[in-house]
Amino acid sequence: MSDYDFDVIVIGAGPGGYVAAIRAAQLGLKTACVESRATLGGTCLNVGCIPSKAMLHASELYDEAASGKLAKLGIKAQVELDLDTMHGQRRDAVKGLTGGIEFLFKKNKVEWLKGHAAFIGKDTIDVAGKSYRARNIVVATGSNVTPLPGVEIDEKVVVSSTGALELAKVPGHLVVIGGGVIGLELGSVWKRLGAKVTVVEFLDQLLPGMDGEVRKEAAKIFKKQGIELKLSTKVTGVTVKGDKASVTVEPAAGGAAETLEADAVLVSIGRRPNTDGLALERAGLTVNKRGQIEVDHDLATAVPGIWAIGDVVPGPMLAHKAEDEGIAVAENIAGLTGIVNHDVIPGVVYTMPEIAGVGLTEEEAKERGEVKVGKFPMLANSRAKTNHEPDGFVKVIADAKTDRVLGVHIIASVAGTMIAQAAQAMEFGATSEDIAYTCHAHPTHSEAIKEAAMAVTGKPIHI
Ligand code: FAD
Ligand code: NAD
């Protein structure tokens, strides 16, 4: 009889870990998943993707009604914000989905080991004072908030994304430190609900890593929406007095300091891998300079039998990237061939309009060789125009010689949904001509992708 307790133990039940555990069990492996949180689903379901989208959706509807956008469509309503109910539907969404993962664990016979896991040796971990031995251990411990030195997060006045999801009242002035994805999504929520929002960003543009033209256009759109942007600006200190904060900022290149008075301050300057308390050294594992566990193409670490996936390994910190790695790692453990194409991972910012991209930015593509670029404005897309959603564009970047699509970038109300076809086309090695000659339903926002692909060879119809 085997002296192993499990074929696979997964540490962490976020989108990486819970998906890995379910797939491993589906493949016939005896599987356990360790989670220290009271509910399954990790950052994404508990305090990330899901609650933020619940607040983004509700605040968007409120804004449409309160700002008179609905009145322009002939819908007149007396609007009142009931923030408690809005938070209630957010909590309901989280409860439903985290409970759903518990159901899936039972259905697939994945055992949930409740508690914090720490390595005892390379094939053994401790959970709540009990040791468990497994042939394979998958580290899927995710990430947490990067602190800003000298700024204490109290989750009341100075909040991380977790506190910013739960503010009990709309702040008069919200100062957001960091103009990345979290800052813009949660900044948008509170702006729509009535707060004055100021985003302080160290770099000269928002959304680092995204296509340059997209970043510039996004800044224009957020400014038009009334979000104040302080680019190339650094925060030098935050002091809290009672329920107010003073944020001192100065130009990144040096210059006169300025103080912003705030009712809430959101610290959203990135996230860092979670490895504290795991005792990786007892398993012979180390982390790189960024605190991540390095893995090879198969998601195997340097120690045989130990694998790692999701936010704790290099790559974009995205739930769908973690999920795909979860499936791949389970398949590799089971002796199949699990593959994740890290060149084709879409990213979406769920503001209004949404901002989405997949593949290379124009800047990256040009560094590698000659490219052709096709663009189409949403203003000329019949559905976007009819829906009064004129902002944004689609940009298709193709290799100048082979016409193979290298990247697609979209700003549009439903960019997050539109980007899926671009990712699939790229996964199939499509050319811009393949997209241009694919019949797209009319009237849809997605026709803008077809037209941008037609524009690669200079032949869009509607501009
Ligand atoms: P996590 O989801 O972080 O899960 C790791 C789990 O491991 C946690 O539950 C933790 O409690 C547990 N754990 C850690 N250490 C131990 C231990 N030693 N023992 C036991 N358990 C342990 N991504 C998107 O793709 N789309 C979005 O819209 C999106 N929105 C976001 C919004 C916010 C506000 C935030 C903060 C993040 C968002 N993300 C989004 C990012 C996304 O949440 C992460 O990329 C994703 O959750 C990573 O999954 P993971 O499985 O690697 O780790
Ligand atoms: P981020 O890396 O997206 O943005 C952080 C921003 O803060 C950057 O623009 C950076 O230049 C800036 N910054 C860093 N230090 C600063 C300082 N001292 N002063 C001012 N600005 C500073 O990080 P985030 O927004 O915290 O999000 C963390 C992670 O969560 C991201 O990797 C993202 O992928 C993930 N996430 C994804 C989604 C989504 O997919 N829709 C939503 C939320 C979060």
Secondary structure blueprint with pairings:
Elements (H helix, E strand, L loop, with lengths): L5 E6 L3 H12 L4 E5 L6 H6 L1 H18 L2 H4 L10 H26 L2 E4 L2 E5 L2 E4 L2 E10 L3 E3 L12 E2 L1 H4 L8 E5 L3 H12 L3 E5 L11 H13 L3 E3 L2 E9 L2 E8 L6 E5 L1 E4 L3 E3 L32 E3 L10 H15 L13 E3 L4 E6 L2 H7 L2 E7 L4 H5 L6 E7 L5 E8 L2 H13 L4 H5 L10 H10 L7
Parallel strand pairs: 1-2, 1-6, 2-3, 6-17, 8-15, 9-10, 9-15, 10-11
Antiparallel strand pairs: 4-5, 5-6, 7-16, 12-13, 13-14, 18-19, 19-22, 20-21, 21-22
Helix pairs in contact: 1-5, 1-9, 3-5, 3-7
Bound molecules: flavin-adenine dinucleotide and nicotinamide-adenine-dinucleotide (NAD).
Keywords: Disulfide bond, FAD, Flavoprotein, NAD, Nucleotide-binding, Oxidoreductase, Redox-active center
Family: Belongs to the class-I pyridine nucleotide-disulfide oxidoreductase family.
EC number: 1.8.1.4
